Amino acid sequence: MEFKLEAHRIVSISLGKIYNSRGQRGGIKLHKNLLVSLVLRSARQVYLSDPCPGLYLAGSPAPPQPGEPAAGGGGPAGCQALGASPLKKPRRHLEEQPAGAAAEEEEEMETGNVANLISIFGSSFSGLLRKSPGGGREEAEGEESGPEAAEPGQICCDKAVLRDMNPWSTAIVAF
Amino acid sequence: MNCPDESTYGNKADIISTVEFNHTGELLATGDKGGRVVIFQREQESKNQVHRRGEYNVYSTFQSHEPEFDYLKSLEIEEKINKIRWLPQQNAAYFLLSTNDKTVKLWKVSERDKRPEGYNLKDEEGRLRDPATITTLRVPVLRPMDLMVEATPRRVFANAHTYHINSISVNSDYETYMSADDLRINLWNFEITNQSFNIVDIKPANMEELTEVITAAEFHPHHCNTFVYSSSKGTIRLCDMRASALCDRHTKFFEEPEDPSNRSFFSEIISSISDVKFSHSGRYIMTRDYLTVKVWDLNMENRPMETYQVHDYLRSKLCSLYENDCIFDKFECVWNGSDSVIMTGSYNNFFRMFDRNTKRDVTLEASRENSKPRAILKPRKVCVGGKRRKDEISVDSLDFSKKILHTAWHPSENIIAVAATNNLYIFQDKVN
Fold first, then answer.
1. Reported ipTM
2. What confidence category does residue A146 fall into, taking pLDDT thresholds of 50, 70 and 90?
3. What is the mean pLDDT of residues A88-105?
4. Which of A34, A82, A127 lies at the smallest CB-CB distance from B213?
């Protein structure tokens, strides 16, 4: 559970850094943003593979999370379970989404606001650096067909989910 | 663990961003965030003033780079000087390269101590005289004047880098140099400014597959065909330009296997190499990552020859250092003239020296309070465990806004230059 808390905190710090980097003088620093995205992915892995119930910002109850495609073993995650290359896991996560049933997909999306954000922002590097502030929402609206059609980096977020998110999460998705 | 804004310590533009001795050690150049270059010159030692052993005084100051705006990308280009590299001296003038994120410039620094006087056609103020009043012929004569040091930009090498330049390195042929950004390295000829050769390109076809960037690059000190570059993944590649035009395939690949017991969220960040330097002999390379300095033998690729812990007590604080951005600080490292001692900076204005032969190390502090001119520097110690001794400082009391990122060592003598935010400290070995 502590690992999930820690991972959650690191995810929010990382997102904040990426957001701030866009306004920085001299342009986006590629090196720093790459490193932040790597931390984001590590934290995301831990967050998603930790069997404890997720954290919710809006306080809604946590439904059980059976069969999460990205959870490697179900076992104790924590900082030690980052043996696999972070790059491989996100790909597998996206590949297994189309393979899974749509219902499972839905469940994944509604599992938690933060888990959503993690999968959105953790999936690829360039997705983090998309410039247009409204880009997130525009892309989300175009994604009705489902994430199978999505390229890595595109936001795979239903309108319905966006509505249910609290303002904090929505702001970050919009970014 | 606070990291206060740098601007609380005076003008942000004065923050020193690079320090470099020239090849004889006579000159010391610094570059700052405001785009200025300040050159110090060592006093000639005189028999009259024996105690003033060759101190460094300001020799020349000039504005190297100005802030620019890239209209196509709506981006401001910072004027901060990222690196300065000297060319070996070939005549009376001095030449150096200075670079910001996008543009490299070759500067000529020369002295003028004579002035032509007695023009035939001009008066003393330089205005043309009325030809009707000229009745005699006279030839101008050179007369002494107060020494003036002027810096002129001789070449501007622009528009060759899409990403931010992190390194420049002068080749041992003295005809070419390279500039490296996050994804590419270009080779230039000093005489040609409108073209450069791309010799390394690690940009993936799909940027989404980006996993590493180039962090530093340097030419071999003697072999003009050889250079190394380091990456954010903690690896070093040695390339030979004779092998092919595009050196995407390395000749040697240096990487140390990761210690699985040290794995954390921040393992990748702390293994990113911030600086790479060849030894003067050309037999070794030294790399700096967040917590260590490593010395590699060019003939052994699978692990470093020596590893020195700079500030291992920070390993348990990585999360806080990530929060306050200190984990992204890029420390440099330097060799002394004989390659027997290496030096690098840390926090709290501490810097560390490691003697490779005796295996002894020392922590020193660059601060006004602790060092009066000609006073001996006292070794410092950081207390890691429970009981703090009298002179020790605890990890939690360290000031993380006072970081020493840039240091330089005189090529042949024990004189070091240490940049502490906007102050430059020059320390010399005491003789007798």
1. 0.89
2. very low
3. 36
4. A34
